[in-house]
């Protein structure tokens, strides 16, 4: 297998795919935390969700 002339390309393709996947995972995680923090700020300022309805 080590004498395969395409081995470098295969390894590079897997590394590139792993990099893209991990980058997207990091981006989604960071954005989720940001959106959660913004939602908490909105709720702390008095904004309420429409799905709560008129609870008294």
Give an overview of the whole structure.
The protein has 56 residues and is an all-alpha fold. Helix content is 68%, strand content 0%. It has 1 helix and no strands. The termini are far apart. The model has no long low-confidence stretch (mean pLDDT 90).
Briefly, what is this?
With 56 residues, this protein is mostly helical.
> Number of DSSP helices?
1
**SSE series:** H
General form: rod-shaped
Low-confidence stretches are: none
Radius of gyration based on Cα positions: 23 Å
Total strands: 0
The proportion of strand residues reads under 5%
Helix fraction by DSSP (H/I, runs of at least 4): 55-70%
Distance between the termini: 71 Å
Structural class of the secondary structure composition? Answer: mainly alpha
Largest sheet data: none
Defining key terms:
mainly alpha; 56 residues; single chain; rod-shaped
Q: Any chance you could write out the topology, listing elements then pairs?
A:
Layout: H1 7-44
């Amino acid at each position: 297998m080590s004498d395969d002339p395409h081995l470098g390309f295969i390894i590079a393709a897997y590394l590139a795919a792993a990099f893209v996947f991990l980058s997207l995972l990091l981006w989604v995680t960071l954005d989720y935390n940001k959106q959660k923090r913004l939602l908490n700020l909105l709720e702390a300022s008095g904004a309420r969700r429409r799905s709560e309805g008129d609870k008294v």
